[in-house]
Write a structure and sequence with these properties.
Layout lengths: L4 E5 L3 H13 L3 E5 L2 H10 L4 E4 L8 H10 L8 E5 L4 H9 L4 E4 L4 H11 L1
Parallel strand pairs: 1-2, 1-3, 3-4, 4-5
């Protein structure tokens, strides 16, 4: 199934704007959430085809939220790509162990991100 709708979860308004702009210009419909509670509200409103997940957020972090989403039978089929400034191999491994399908580091390389999204679709 091709990816058309993407939920971007990030507590930085700047990152939300940059990613929304990039994805929108490439034909994706984007919704955003600034924290875990808002992300679950968005998931309940309209199921996305993909989630881009920041790691460092107040309250529930991206690792915890990824684990919660991938263990929920209603949402477990949605692929998650971690999108974070945490660039250690241990962070990548931990994200993948929580259920993420891929991992990109910020600042995001547009072509790399778009290529990973296409590969998941």
């Amino acid at each position: 199934m091709p990816i058309r709708k993407i939920l971007v979860v990030d507590d930085s308004k700047t990152e939300l704007m940059v990613l929304s702009d990039l994805l929108g210009k490439n034909g994706y419909t984007v919704t955003t959430a600034e924290n875990a509670d808002e992300a679950f509200r968005r998931l309940g409103e309209e199921k996305p085809d993909l989630i881009l997940m920041d790691v460092v957020m107040p309250g529930q972090n991206g690792f915890q939220l990824t684990r919660a989403i991938t263990r929920d039978p209603h949402f477990s089929s949605i692929p998650i790509v971690m999108c974070t400034s945490n660039n250690l191999e241990t962070d990548r491994d931990w994200g993948m162990r929580q259920g993420a399908r891929d991992y990109v580091t910020k600042p995001v390389d547009a072509e790399e991100l778009l290529s990973k999204i296409r590969a998941l679709g």
